[in-house]
Amino acid sequence: MTPKAEQGTGLRADAARNRARVLQVAREQLALGDDSLQLNAIARLAGVGVGTVYRHFPNRHALREALSAERFQELLAEARAAADDEDALAGLHRLLRFALDRALHDPGFAAVLESASDAEARTSAMKAEYDRAVAELLDRARCTGAIRHDIAADDVRRLLCGIEHAVRSGADGSARAGVYLGVLLEGLRPPR
Amino acid sequence: MTPKAEQGTGLRADAARNRARVLQVAREQLALGDDSLQLNAIARLAGVGVGTVYRHFPNRHALREALSAERFQELLAEARAAADDEDALAGLHRLLRFALDRALHDPGFAAVLESASDAEARTSAMKAEYDRAVAELLDRARCTGAIRHDIAADDVRRLLCGIEHAVRSGADGSARAGVYLGVLLEGLRPPR
Amino acid sequence: MTPKAEQGTGLRADAARNRARVLQVAREQLALGDDSLQLNAIARLAGVGVGTVYRHFPNRHALREALSAERFQELLAEARAAADDEDALAGLHRLLRFALDRALHDPGFAAVLESASDAEARTSAMKAEYDRAVAELLDRARCTGAIRHDIAADDVRRLLCGIEHAVRSGADGSARAGVYLGVLLEGLRPPR
Amino acid sequence: MTPKAEQGTGLRADAARNRARVLQVAREQLALGDDSLQLNAIARLAGVGVGTVYRHFPNRHALREALSAERFQELLAEARAAADDEDALAGLHRLLRFALDRALHDPGFAAVLESASDAEARTSAMKAEYDRAVAELLDRARCTGAIRHDIAADDVRRLLCGIEHAVRSGADGSARAGVYLGVLLEGLRPPR
DNA sequence: CATGAATGAGTCTTCATTCAT
DNA sequence: CATGAATGAAGACTCATTCAT
User: How far apart are CA A100 and CA A81, in angstroms?
Assistant: First the structure.
């Protein structure tokens, strides 16, 4: 066991510090609206060498996935909570509202969430777990006739990313997020 | 008067030929999945000098807008037809189905359709005309209680692009387009 | 003889008009501080084709010389007047003051004035005539011991352009022109 | 401490070598009469990548200033020596003669010397130090009535560059440098 | 003579990635 | 492991000049 047994990663203390610093800077860049994630620039801002960044994240996509991992953890927590909801439809709505909010705040996360192919197995696993939770909610809700039958969990995931896309394309920030999500939720009900 | 008075553009015959060639090559590149639209490469493929491309299209965006202009014309024709439909809701559905189909076939067109800022005034004009047609349909459909009240024409345009995004993010081509569009159309009805 | 017998150039009326328009625009560009004299841009601003500009002025230098020709005429007029001055030194001072003023107002003219090689014979001829007038003044002034012996007319021309350069390099416009010219005039006297 | 602790620059050995190589090539290009300083061409001639040149010198002007920095150091050394001269006027003459010589040998240096705006603070600092030294000499010389009162150090700097310009514009190399400098020095004395 | 579209060599600049230190 | 200098392919864009109309 490592001296400090931090989060279970087998990293030397300084390596872990560098990795965290890089992730932090990358997050800041995204927050500033720069989604190019240039590894050179990030290295400079993080005060580490480019090589260090490349050691930890062999390419831009790996960094992006790492960045979204913690978002994914939050999402999974919410998904588990939603699964415990008595009212499946309410749980689903709550979960999607949460997911949309997170995706809007972190475009990189949205990209990973909607991507059909992942760079790291861990990402695929998290995505699968999320889909499983949604699928369960969908199934339960369908028993009460509240959800259409031609929609699966991955459809919902993609549709949500589509909604996020629509919200973002507006000039007025996230002002329309609530309404657009309402359209999606209503659209998921069986056609009249 | 010019000998051939072709399509009313005030271009010399050879200039028009070059312009068309460039557009043609650009379309092919997009069809091949390369949406970078590198003016250098396009010039080479079109067999014209770089300067020629730059003369006709000062930047990549201008080229993209020019490419989508014809798509837009088709869309406007359909919009006018839909406006004549007795059944406003049916007309709207038909129009959105058409728009989604076109956007899926031409990602550049989708991008222009959803963009909040245009490079050329003509694009903005076409977008406005499309929005007007949709707004009219929405209004008429709302009279029969078929459409929710918190949605405007530009919302519909963005939501449609969101749907397009969702369809495209799937691994199975446009297979889910019908279902996803169904979700949108249903979602546009007033909440139960 | 041509119908309008303008300035003796054997140009058709429209050709002469175009030539004048080009020169006018070029002058304006220089006045605006753009001394790049791009033939393309000038053609556009003058409302003529590039080819027309090239017909009249095969290259940038020819245009520059043409531009300075009228300045040169003014300068020659002043030189003749100065030559008539009883007081040779006073005449020289007056002439140099005039030349400096003109050079400061027209950098292109300054460039032609100082250049050691001309594109057109006419320019060389005017330059020679100017130098002759200055040489005469120098000679007459030297009789009264007012001018050093190691300086010829072309030296004076170059030194004046040097002064012009010094004035222009200052941040405060032509504010120091008078003083700098004073330094030159004093420096032309025999060393004490 | 680095093994060789070369000239105090905080550069890695290979980086310093490359930087020197680039400067060397740039100097050669200037010596060959090509003052365009094209970073691409210099990179090729120096046998380094373009990026290397851009890393050391972000733009042409930075390179030019770096090139003139060493010239400036020589000039400052001479200025300090001149300041120690008993005879202020003699010191000034000596210093200006030296400066003219250097400016004539290095047109880039002349350009930096006369420029009203510098890209690097270090250049401005050196220029200011040079002006200080000249100002001191002027003041001391003025006490003996040897220098006119309407001339400051930066005027002298500009006038010297003007003289350099005049010398260079002649067809016969630097043959007239001595005489032209004599005119300036004489012109700096109070008017009779 | 006039036109202006076309040309394409030439220039600047960025940035992902490697590798010597 | 960390560093960051070096690399150089790649791309954007300009502009002097030509020549078909």
Answer: 16
Evaluate whether D151 touches D161 at the Cβ level (below 8 Å). Answer: no
Q: Is residue D144's beta carbon less than 7 angstroms from any atom in nucleic acid strand E?
A: no
How does pLDDT run across A104-150, given as a tens digit for each residue? 988 889 988 998 888 788 899 999 999 999 999 999 999 999 999 99
Alpha-carbon span A173 to D11, nearest angstrom: 47
Predicted TM-score (pTM) of the model is 0.74
Nucleic strand E under 7 Å from the C-beta of D40: yes
Of residues D148, D146, D183, the one with CA closest to residue D163? D183
Q: How many residues does chain C have?
A: 192
pLDDT of residue D73: 94
CA distance A47 to A51: 12
User: Judged by CB atoms within 8 Å, which residues 48-77 of C form the interface with D?
Assistant: none
- Give the three-class secondary structure for D34: coil
- Mutation target to probe the D interface, by most D beta carbons within 10 A, among C96, C151, C160, C165 is C165
Q: What pLDDT was estimated at residue C30?
A: 86
| Other residues' Cβ atoms within 10 Å of the Cβ of residue A150 | 13
Measure the CA–CA gap between A84 and C70, rounded to whole angstroms: 93
Cβ–Cβ gap C179/D115 under 8 Å: no
Q: Which residue is nearest to nucleotide F4 (CA to C1')?
A: A49
d(CA B184, CA B113): 17
Please state whether strand E lies within 7 Å of residue A40 at its CB atom.
yes
User: Is the Cβ of B116 closer than 8 Å to some Cβ of chain A?
Assistant: yes
Helix-strand-coil split of chain B, %, nearest 5: 70, 0, 30
